[in-house]
Every structure is written in structure tokens, then in C-alpha cells.
Amino acid sequence: MKAERIVNTSVVAALVLFPLWAWMTDAPFLITLATKAVIFALAGVGLNIALGIGGLVSLGHAAFFGLGGYAMGILASHAQAYDPIFNAPFVLEGTKSMPVIWLVAIISSGLAALAIGALSLRTSGVYFIMITLAFGQMLYYFSISWPAYGGEDGLSIYVRNSFPGMNTLDPIQYYVICVALLFAVLLFTSRLARAPFGLALGAARQSPLRVKTVGISPYKLQLVAFTISGMITGLAGALFADLNRFVSPTMFSWQLSGEIIVFILIGGTARLFGPVVGAIVFVLLEHLLGGLSEYWHIYLGLLLLLIVLFARGGLIGLLAGKERSHD
């Protein structure tokens, strides 16, 4: 456990120092790359609550990522709309305020996760995986057939949304916002895992029958965990859409759901910083190998294969030992 804390501290130091170095050397692209890794890490931390603590393998978590992104896109698009007669800006029900957009993204994703979880959790195993995939694909095809917000072409937002007291167009300032949210969610996840709810959820993963015998419903525990997981992933989706100033149906794709699972597997399932390490490795491989070949996923697959065979605790488990912890 002490070794894992050292690894976690090193990851935190890297998240703080690397962007500062990139800013001092005037390399805004590297800051944007780090921001992307942080947002993917946030999505992974969200899924890890359901997968790592609750044992729920969801292949449809991109549904919540996409809902968060479209919440941002829809609100921002209405805020930047123009009157066709007077050519003057006006606001419908839209907003450019990040805190408001985050709240809407979290609530909409949470409600969707509650509804999807309520149905999906009546199954288990491969059936649960497939029903979450089905819901994700339903939203994917719905977004394609929604011409009001770009349909298959997606929706562009020309100016990044605002945050009080900060210039969000400055890469380092937007990075600070994203990494602060990541640290806040990591702290929340750490407390959740050690709280009575987290301990009961872990027990329900290991032995649902024993949890039932003490009067606790595994279904309710898992539903709450799935809902919280969806809310955090929705927040990540809103941040990702703001980073790119663009939303598209690909945010709902099952491939993205698979990538979020890959983040967790690379870093270490049920490890607090597992998704963070996995997201960083994924973005680094995409950046370094993507320019060499469009088939760079082959190398990612080889890495994942080696981890599954020889380091089932992920990279953090390989470095820190075999104990599982959310400290």
C-alpha cells in the first residue's frame, strides 16, 4: 500500500509539473494533449466506480459521455444563436457558463444512468454487458438521426464556454479547471470506496447472497453506483466537448466505451489512479505511434495482452505490488 501511494504521488506530480513545463517552453499543443488525457482519466474514474468497486462491466458508458457532450453542445449552441432578422445575438434556453453546463450534464447523464441501470441490472454477466451496449447504440443512432443538432456531421461551438475569473481559451487555464475536477473526483472516489456504501458494494460484488442475508439489497447498491458512475462520465463528456468545441455521434460509439475500459485495464482495475495511468498511456501511444501508422492500435493491443497475461493488477499493480486499494 505504501508503494502504491508513492506511485499515486508520482502521477499527481506528473499531472502538475508536465503542463507547467509545457507552458514555460511555450508548447500549447502538449498542454492540450495533457488536457485530453485528464478528461479521459475522469471518464475512466467514473466507470471504475461501477467496474472496479461494483464489478459491473458496462460496454455502454459512452452513452453518458455523449450525453454530457451534447448537453454542452445544445446549451452552448442556443447561447450563440443569432436572430435571422435583426442579426443580433440572443439567448434561448442556452448558456455559456461552464458550471451551469456541468450541472446539466451531470443531471442528464445521471437520470439516463438511473433509467438504464434500473433495467440493465436485472440481468448479469454477459447479458448486462450486451444490454448496456444496446442502450449506447440506441443513443448513437438517435444522435445521427437528430438533424436539429447536426446529425451525423455533429455540432460546432465556435467559442469555448466561460468559467468565472478564468480565460478558458488559454490552454493552461482550461487544463487547471480539468485537473482540479479530476482531483476532486479522485478524492470523492477514495472516500466512497472506504465508506460503508463502498464496502457494502464491494461485498455485493464478491458475494451477493451474503449481502442479502444481512438485509442489504445488492441491486440498490449497484444501481446507485451505476448512477454515480454515469454522472462522472457525463461530466467528462462535457469537458471533452468543450476542449474540442465540437460534439458528434462518435461520442456515443461503442468503441469509446471499449477505450474507457482499456484505460482501467492498463492502469489497474479497482486502483484509484488506475484509469489515470491508463488514460495517460493511451494518449501517449496515440500521439507517438499515431503518426507512424494508422494501425497503432496493434501496439496498444499487444500492451493490453501483456498486461492481462502478466500484470493483472495493471501497471500500478506491477509497480506497487498485488494489493488492491483505493487509497
UniProtKB/TrEMBL annotation:
Principal location: membrane
Membrane topology: Multi-pass membrane protein
One GO CC annotation: plasma membrane
Location(s), subcellular: Cell membrane
Keyword set, alphabetical order: Cell membrane, Membrane, Transmembrane, Transmembrane helix
Residue intervals passing through the bilayer: 7-24, 30-50, 62-80, 100-119, 126-149, 172-189, 219-240, 260-285, 297-320
GO molecular function, one term: branched-chain amino acid transmembrane transporter activity
Keyword Cell membrane listed: yes
Protein name: Branched-chain amino acid transport system permease protein
Organism: Sulfitobacter undariae
Classification of source organism: Bacteria, Pseudomonadati, Pseudomonadota, Alphaproteobacteria, Rhodobacterales
